[in-house]
Amino acid sequence: MPLGLDKTKFLANKARELEVQSRRKDERITLLETENAMLHLKLAQLRGEVTIAKKETSEFYSDLEISDKFKSYVIEKTNKLRKDALNLKQELVKLKTFVEEMPKQFAQYFNRAGTIFQHQTAAFESRSGNITALADEVAQLKNSLKEITERHALEKKRRQELHNTLMELRGNIRVHGRIRPLMEFDVENEDITSLGKPGSRSEVVVHYVDDENICVRTNKHNKVFEYERVYNSTEKQEAIFDEVQPMLTSLLDGYNVSIMAYGQTGSGKTHTMLGSHRNDDYNPSHDPHPDEGVIPRATRELFRLIEEKPVGTHSLEVSVVEVYNNDIKDLLSRDPNAKHDVVTGGDGQLSIPTVTSKPVDNVDSVMTLVQLGLKTRKESATLVHEHSSRSHLIVTLTVTTKAPSFFAKSFAAEPEGNTSISKKGVVGNLQTTNQQPVVRTKLQLVDLAGSECVGMSGVKGAALREASNINKSLSALADVLGALAEHRTHVPYRNSRLTHFLQDSIGGDAKLLILLCVSPAQRYITESLQCLGFGQRARQVQRGPTKRRLPSSAEKVAPENTQSRPNSATR
Ligand SMILES: Nc1ncnc2c1ncn2[C@@H]1O[C@H](COP(=O)(O)OP(=O)(O)OP(=O)(O)O)[C@@H](O)[C@H]1O
């Protein structure tokens, strides 16, 4: 500090000076800071420009790359186009050649198409011609079919009417005769070599004359018996059934039908009705065995006829009974010895309510039941042959038919069991089942017991009683037929259980066929004459009333004392 200067003043000056310096420095700092800020700004601007330039450069490079790629793509494409163009040129050359050749080929194709078209048109025309012809033919066939169907229905109706007329003309009781062949047992006590020899006991004396006449010829007898049909000893079971068949149609038309075999022991009744098989070896089958008799054949035919009817309208029941010593025995019952009686219902219809009646739906089931019944049937050996049937066997097939709807209407107004329906031609028993009117008809197939004379069979005691009862019942049968023939007001059905049981099937509108079975041998001549005489009298029933009282079957036929030959035989 200069001398003399005031120290305070000096310091104050110094401070001022420093203050100025400081202010200047602050101003300098501010200036520098401003410059710095401006520089920062400039830097930022430059940085931005650099970034943009970089981006532009990279874009340029990228564009350059793309343009390189595009260039190579263009080159490649150009090459391809060139190639294509070359190919096209070649194609064009080919096309030109083709176009040049086309008219020629078209002409060829056209020609070929023309030919094919001509062929096709011709074929189509002929085919359409055929189709038209076929359509015409179908239309004609349809018309013919309609006509045939109508004609068939008409024919069926006419056949039905004809059948009924024929059955009426033939009569309700018909008699056929069947001569069985000579059998070994016919020789009696003679040597088998004598079988059929003139003068022997087995000499043939019952002869087939023609299909309506049988002749019995010996030194003492010469008599001809005429029936609706006669079968010779070689005629098969089938031939007999041919005659039986129409009766089954009648059965389904509402008539009761009965077919019975009549003849002496060993004359072929069981063979005719059942066949010659015994109980155990019988094999029910769908096809008829040539040996089968009327019962299996009729049953089979009945099922066939029922099959032709509307489903569910017909049903069948079977019962198997025997009339033994004038008692009715149920052969399907557990107690075959229990006795049964024929009962007349309030409606006048007959039935045996206590007898087993089994529903059946095929021939096998029927035949199985028949065979079951046959096992119980009374058989006992006689002097004639070892399987003589000592009872009448009756197989009853009851057909239940649901009445058509118009019956149901008329029935609604009628009391139960009223038979007014018979006015319409239906004679079966009309009943109700759960308010549904039904018609019941019966087919009774009867294998009668042997009709021989007691003395001939050589039986005694119980067997004699059997034979006596057989003769009585057969005699009652003859009496019934006699009463019917004479149109008597009283027909003695109740004289025997056999006729009482068969009452519905004998007389009235019922159809009865009696098959007379005769042995040809001389040793049975009395029985054969009796049997043939019985048949002859039975024929009177359909020939109308006769003044003469018919002798019963037990009465003998008086032998005729003539030696004339068959040609001059009396009738
Ligand atoms: N037409 C026939 N063809 C062949 N054999 C028959 C003929 N008829 C009967 N026969 C035979 O004769 C024998 C006696 O016949 P079948 O038993 O049928 O007599 P039947 O009259 O029933 O006797 P019965 O009353 O005693 O029972 C049997 O062996 C049977 O095979």
TrEMBL record:
<keyword id="KW-0547">Nucleotide-binding</keyword>
<keyword id="KW-0505">Motor protein</keyword>
<feature type="domain" description="Kinesin motor">
    <location>
        <begin position="172"/>
        <end position="541"/>
    </location>
</feature>
<dbReference type="GO" id="GO:0007018">
    <property type="term" value="P:microtubule-based movement"/>
</dbReference>
<dbReference type="GO" id="GO:0005524">
    <property type="term" value="F:ATP binding"/>
</dbReference>
<keyword id="KW-0067">ATP-binding</keyword>
<keyword id="KW-0206">Cytoskeleton</keyword>
<feature type="compositionally biased region" description="Polar residues">
    <location>
        <begin position="560"/>
        <end position="571"/>
    </location>
</feature>
<dbReference type="GO" id="GO:0008017">
    <property type="term" value="F:microtubule binding"/>
</dbReference>
<dbReference type="GO" id="GO:0003777">
    <property type="term" value="F:microtubule motor activity"/>
</dbReference>
<comment type="similarity">
    <text>Belongs to the TRAFAC class myosin-kinesin ATPase superfamily. Kinesin family.</text>
</comment>
<dbReference type="InterPro" id="IPR036961">
    <property type="entry name" value="Kinesin_motor_dom_sf"/>
</dbReference>
<feature type="region of interest" description="Disordered">
    <location>
        <begin position="540"/>
        <end position="571"/>
    </location>
</feature>
<dbReference type="InterPro" id="IPR027640">
    <property type="entry name" value="Kinesin-like_fam"/>
</dbReference>
<dbReference type="GO" id="GO:0015630">
    <property type="term" value="C:microtubule cytoskeleton"/>
</dbReference>
<dbReference type="InterPro" id="IPR027417">
    <property type="entry name" value="P-loop_NTPase"/>
</dbReference>
<protein>
    <submittedName>
        <fullName>Kinesin-like protein KIF25 isoform X1</fullName>
    </submittedName>
</protein>
<feature type="binding site">
    <location>
        <begin position="263"/>
        <end position="270"/>
    </location>
    <ligand>
        <name>ATP</name>
    </ligand>
</feature>
<keyword id="KW-0963">Cytoplasm</keyword>
<dbReference type="Pfam" id="PF00225">
    <property type="entry name" value="Kinesin"/>
</dbReference>
<dbReference type="InterPro" id="IPR001752">
    <property type="entry name" value="Kinesin_motor_dom"/>
</dbReference>
<keyword id="KW-0175">Coiled coil</keyword>
<feature type="coiled-coil region">
    <location>
        <begin position="131"/>
        <end position="158"/>
    </location>
</feature>
